[in-house]
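Structure tokens
________________
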Amino acid sequence: MSALISFLLRVLGVAGLLGLPLMLQAQPADASAEETAWFAGGWAVAPAPVEGFEDITAVPPGTVRIEHAGGARLVRHSPEKNGRPAVSVAFTVKKLGGNFPWWPTAGGPGAVARRVSADSFDLATVGPMGRADWSRALRHTRIVAPVAKEPMARPAGGVQILVNHVKPERQADFELWLHEFRLLVDRLVAEGKLSAAEQRAYASWRIFAPDNETLAITQEAGLPLEYLFIFDPVEAGASYDFAEYLLRGLGEEAARKKLAQWQEMLAQPQTVLSGVPL
């Protein structure tokens, strides 16, 4: 019996030695840099839907940021949440079939990612038996920044008209605000913070206020007072956004307060008539 056991142990030992290089050869290869870089960016994270189960509670999505560290390396950054500290974990991304195993650089349990769409993937942890637990996977959906709207075209040579309906009781405050804004623009010009086109645009700025007769009628009726701002002609490349000039001259916080004062004095949002032909 002892001879048989000794023989079996020798066989198993040889098999183990022979199996070791085969196991190493079977390890998945690294994903390409392009495949790895696909996972980089900001992601909204929520539990992945499981077939046959219906969510009965809504879980607000969290967010993570994934950084491509070159080659097949990623770093997944999870922000602080509900008292849990922020965590950054580095991975080496492998490719196995259509999935992408993530091997932690520092060791420990890994994860497997599978792409669900052009802008989403599921990430499942790997259990003790080496299998991905897709029932508890996290769905990652790419956060896409909104596309900035192109400013409305203002053909050179046209007229830019801004119509302001001012609350009658705020007329004095409105005119004081305009005077201060004029001084701000003059300072920006002196400091060289306006382009040549912007300087020409504001040199052409004309303000038309209600005449005395119109003012008396509108004030008696409690109607808003109409102030027209006319820029003639329109300068290509010049900004006509007051908020932008406030930001340049005052900084973010003071500009926000100044703009809020402006908006509070108007009975309705400013009307913009752009590109009116001469």
Helices lie at 2-25, 33-37, 171-190, 196-203, 212-221, 242-250, 252-265.
